[in-house]
Give the backbone structure.
Amino acid sequence: MLILSAALVAIAMSACATSNSACCANSACPQKCKNCGKCNSMKLTKDMFYKNGKFDDKAAIEAYIAMMEKLGYPVSDNLRQNMWASDFGLGDFPAVGMGGIFWIHDNTSGIFGHEIILLPNQMLIEHAHFPHNGLPAKYESWQCRAGKSYCFGEEGEDASKYPDVKVPESQKNFITVHKVAVADAKKGNIVRLNRKQAFHYQIAGPEGAVVTEYGVYHQNEGNRYTNPNVKF
């Protein structure tokens, strides 16, 4: 329970505003801080999500749920019971990882609906989708439901326009695309993959992100990762 409590406290503290008055008015803040900059100094760390060297997906799911509730995203019974979390076998959660739920994954009609859940500044690793086992390459688009997500790929603005959006150190050697389109829940805009088989990745904004993915039925065997150590 100590690991879980630390994760929840860090989520609450990272959500504090930057001004003193806003911070003290925020009931989620676990301390009446005189300088809210100190409040933001507490971050989610690896030790909150690993037990004896193994990824603790339950702690990760609790952190995702705490974040979603903080963002005002509706956490349904279905989501609580069926969501999952992954560190992609890389041992670098929360910097790299993803939470999610497959709302529908139906090969009969080819329908796929997915919620991508990312902690603050968390990266969903670079990957692409290729034809496999008679299935076409997956095509997809994204709509942010809460927070903001930076969708990197072959088209969009130059990544240098967003210097505060940083690729985790563990992934810098595996990045091949450097354009970005912003999926913003306040705007409700749709970001589309520019073509099938294009490599892409996402990084959440400082509040985290919940992103609805619209796509076609696929199998994980069709996924390709620029980092050869990924397990998913």
